[in-house]
## 1
Amino acid sequence: MYARAREERADLLAKEILEIADAPCKDAVEVAHARNRLDTRKWLASKLAPRKYGDRVEHDHKGGLNFQPAVLVQVGSVDQPLFRQPGKRRTTSRRREQLSQRVQFRQYNSA
């Protein structure tokens, strides 16, 4: 019911816009005043019934897509990979230390 009332109000504003636009103006001041009244009613109608009186935004894209960057910037040394390989865990310094101790323990016990 509320939505229907909003739409009726927007339709009434559209009729008022036509009446204001059809009324003759005598000088530049009246033209500016009429333009202000028109713009206000158009804005309000677009807010009350945006599907009917709102700005239409088209999202059609024609042509090929090109998403390549113009410049590739790499931070860090060249020999390190930019991204981690999937499934490969990043080892922290603590984890590296634990692994090296484990290797040293195995080498000591196997000899």
## 2
Amino acid sequence: MLNEREKRIQERAERAERGPWEWKEMSPGKPYSTIMIMSEDEYLHRGQAWPSEENADFIAHSRADVPYLLATVGRLRGLLKLARLYMAYDDDGAFEKAIQDVDAELESCEQNV
């Protein structure tokens, strides 16, 4: 159940290298500095442009994507907390089952990171 923005974020993440990533300052002490961000796979392919276009796109959007995703997680956790308060009034167990489904989906998302 992703909205359009979340689908674009997911697409960028899927196109980028899985990592782990690291960064290196290429010109320390100079008035200009080049910072190289790469995964282990990119490091092994030095003849290619790095970061790759896909990784550069992922990096460029991360400043907006990460706060958006963190705010979304915060809202979901708040809603889940509120829903748990209402579970006390759940006579037939349907609400509790729905909460368990949401918990399972959140855990699945966390494991895929």
## 3
Amino acid sequence: MQRWGRKSKLSNQEMLYRKNPQWLLGVELKILKLIGENNINRKDYILHMKEYEVKILKGKPKVPQPIQGITQYQQWRWGIGSDLKEAASKGSLCSQIYLRSVNDK
């Protein structure tokens, strides 16, 4: 039997924010389409990630947000796909999914 995760040590609040990334960016989002999904083996678990194309409906991204007790983005910027190649080569699953979706491995 294959193990597809582990018991989360995250608080309920952090799990909620991870499922609602617009709260981490300070904007209201609308999901447009699924870009892709994949798995990656980590030390003690398998990470499964889905990545979506979204539209910002309201607000401008600002990080970090004034929310305590959760993992926060520390910075962000607009860029191009090739900006993600280094992160993808170091194991960033979200970067790998995006680059695969635009055929820019």
